[in-house]
Design brief:
With 100 residues, the protein is of the alpha+beta class. 25% of the residues lie in helices and 32% in strands. It has a six-stranded antiparallel β-sheet. The longest helix is centred in the N-terminal third of the chain and has 11 residues, at 6-16. It is globular. The termini are close together.
């Protein structure tokens, strides 16, 4: 997995500042492999070099408004916010690009 740069690395570092968080990997060895940040053994942030997916609850309505204002940068679906370059490219990622 390539090293993280820019905004994805900043998100990773910010998420890991919270007490009780730890890193993991989702879908290891597959095209959708992602670096994760977990709390209480449940992943809430999924990162690859080009995008981030964040599980939402209370802030889902606010994220939906953001996605309507900036659809080329944000998508909301299944209780998650996806942000980053794959949104502009239709959300497709051909190879594993999980963040480290």
């Amino acid at each position: 997995m390539p090293a993280a740069k820019g905004p994805m690395q900043a998100l990773r570092k910010a998420a890991l500042l919270y007490p009780g968080t730890e890193e993991g990997v989702a879908c290891e060895g597959t095209p959708i492999e992602s670096r994760t940040v977990k709390a209480q053994n449940k992943a809430f942030l999924f990162l690859t070099v080009g995008h981030a997916r964040l599980k939402l609850r209370e802030s889902l309505p606010e994220a939906t408004k953001l996605a309507k204002k900036q659809p080329d940068q944000f998508q909301v679906g299944s209780g998650r916010l996806m942000a980053g370059s794959p949104v502009a490219a239709g959300g497709k990622n051909k190879k594993s690009t999980a963040v480290r």
